[in-house]
Amino acid sequence: MKNLKARRLAQLQIESDTAFLYRRFAEMEEDETVSRVFRELSGIEKGHAEHLLRTLQEEDAGIRLPGPSRRARLQAVIAGIMGYSYVLPNLLDTERSMANAVLRSKQQSGQAVAGSELNHVRILGNLSGSVSGGQLAKMEGRHKAVGGNALRAAVLGANDGLVSNMSLVMGVAGAAAGSREILVAGFAGLLAGSISMALGEWLSVQSSRELYQKQIDIEIEEIETDPEAEKKELALIYQAKGVDEATAHRLASQVFENKESAYTTLVREELGIDPEELGGSAWEAAIASFALFAVGAIIPVIPYLFLNGSTAIFASLAISTVGLFAIGAAITLFTGRGVAYSGFRQVLFGLAAAAVTFGIGHLIGVGLEG
Questions:
Q1: What are the sequence ranges of the domains in the chain?
Q2: 358 class by beta-carbon count within 10 Å (0-12 exposed, 13-18 middle, 19+ buried)
Q3: How far is CA 349 from CA 20, 66, 319, in A?
Q4: Please, which pLDDT band fits residue 136 given cuts at 50, 70 and 90?
């Protein structure tokens, strides 16, 4: 019974958080149609929360509807600064998890599945049930500068730099090297790792751009050779997203009134590609990867600019521990786990890696001296 109550309280917090975030997205969105969709979603989530609250109050009258959690408030701040496209993929994951939980519960209890359980997932994934192709393109254009996973990439990039360079620095320190040698090794590791990350990201994005362009060229050729078939295909896509048949055919016909609009919409709808972006700029991705890795990698090196010997080692470990905890805390934006749990877990893994490399470095150093 306690576990059930705890799960319901956790669910109540999630419903409150999602209602809060949808409301904030509605305030940020300039397109009135899209803003209305978010407002309606917020109202629905608030209704879910109030219904769950009444159920909980039957057992404990003192329970109140919670306000947005610190995690939700932080996501709202990030959305306000960088655009809600940074946060929307995480909210989509939350909606998908809640929908799957409802489906499992109905299946286990023998209840009929209505088919509406995944409606929020479909709306968030497409928004085309309420937004036409042109409006959706316009909304995408306002937020095209960043991808939904950019924040995740930033956190993980900094984590890679911190953990790898801290391990390198500790390994060299374990070999009883002086501060000068450790500094050289630290900056060499920073540059080598940053360049490697940047090159890998450039190749990845550039390859994706080339693949997307090839797919776009094929789609354009199909539109040129058989526009009626492509128009029917677009109508079917709209219907699959919940638009009724008549409206779907009307929207498809409107799109095909302009050849450029038809190209853009079909590429977006059928291929899931933004033709203006083509996966983003390879050079921007490379520079961002270089910078993010370097930010993490510089942390364990900083004390060696001012200190020597064991004092520098402990200072490097201390500042790296703070960085690891901060990264672990940032990861909770995606996982929903507690800040303390994720932060200390990240510290444990990072320090374990440093201890291993320090021990190996010490053994190598002793062997060389012998």
A1: 2-142, 150-205+281-369, 210-271
A2: buried
A3: 34, 34, 15
A4: very low
pLDDT band at 116 (very low <50, low <70, confident <90, very high): very low
pLDDT tens across 137-190, in order? Answer: 333 333 333 344 455 666 778 888 889 989 898 888 888 777 788 889 889 999
Q: Write the class of the CATH domain 2-142.
A: mainly alpha
pLDDT of residue 31 exceeding 60? yes
pLDDT tens digits for range 76-100: 887 787 777 666 666 666 666 666 6
**Residue 75 burial (CB count, 10 A):** 24
Q: How many residues does the chain have?
A: 370
Residue 126 contacts residue 239 (beta carbons within 8 Å): no
Two structure tokens written together for 348:
């444990």
The position carrying tokens 């997205």 is 25
What is the model's pTM?
Answer: 0.52
For residues 261 and 356, give the distance between their C-alpha atoms in angstroms, rounded to a whole number: 58
Residue 314's CB is within 10 A of a number of other CB atoms, namely 12
Query: 226 by DSSP, 3-state: which?
Result: coil
Q: What are phi and psi of 218, to 5 degrees?
A: -65, -45
Locate 290 and state its tokens.
């270089």
- Which DSSP symbol is given to 274? -
272 Rama class: left (phi>0) / alpha (psi -120 to 50) / beta: left
Give the CA angle between residues 153, 352, 310 to the nearest 5°.
110
- Amino acid identity of residue 330, one-letter, is A
CA distances from 15 to 22, 43, 72, 83, 311 (A): 11, 11, 11, 22, 49
Q: How many CA atoms lie within 13 A of 340 on its CB side?
A: 0
